[in-house]
Amino acid sequence: MARKKYYVFFIIAAAFIWSINSLFRRSLHTIPPAFIVFLEHAIIVLIISPIIPRFLPEYKKLSKKDWGILITLGVTSGALATTMYTAALTQIQSISYSVVALLQQTQPIFTIILASLILKEKITRRFSFFAIIALAASYFLAFPNFTPSILGNQAEIIAAALAIGAAFFWGTGTILSKLILKKISYAATAIIRFIIVIPATFIFSLFSNQIYPLSNITSNQWLTLITLALFSGIVSFIIYYKGLQHTEAKISTIAEFTWPLSAAFIGFFFLGERLSSFQILAGAVLLIDILILSLTSSKKV
Known about the structure:
Layout: H1 8-26, H2 33-48, H3 56-60, H4 64-89, H5 97-104, H6 107-117, H7 125-142, H8 154-180, H9 186-207, H10 219-244, H11 249-255, H12 258-270, H13 277-295
């Protein structure tokens, strides 16, 4: 049992990949968000199609209730959340990247509450203390001047609402994933999630008039979509579900704070964004906080 706590590092690795994926996703702003997610998952399923048959025996064992959970997971966490987050990121004229980053970090609030209500995970005072530290450190990492630059225009409010909506659905997705991982393997969970997202996002694209001509997509954009499919999709979700299978939802959601931490350093090393001494301090506090929670026995938090 002691070794299981180290599975949280799979979640940390997945969160690191997602921090990179945000930059790629933002570069596709000329393509409608729902159609980006549709193409991304269509590429994923095309790549993994040869191995799908081996998981059919697992799917055949699922009850109607299990399928209801899976479909809800795919539509909300897979299709809706990713589309909303992509839409927020691609509003490059309306909202800053840091604001989207912060609002997405409200996800632990939803996850922890739902973990307590649905999964009956105990939220101790010790855990609450470290969770508050993580939220505070994450905030100051994103906003070293203590407050975000809010323009207050309608477009920014819409983009902010999309980011919060994505956080809510991803938080819900963590709980639904924990439920379904009790029935099927982590790989089977990831694969069926990918498949369900395709019809869901196509319907979203169709009814929201977001169908985009494939001929208008440039070779660089296709390369970006393939990169998202391989790393942000296949690799990250396989290792994420592997880690989540052996990690409590409340610990998982804190481990995902690796995202803002790694995003800050990616900005520093690759985008030329300078980190203040306060951001470095916030990053160090967040890293220590994540490690303490991740490596502490679940019975103690």
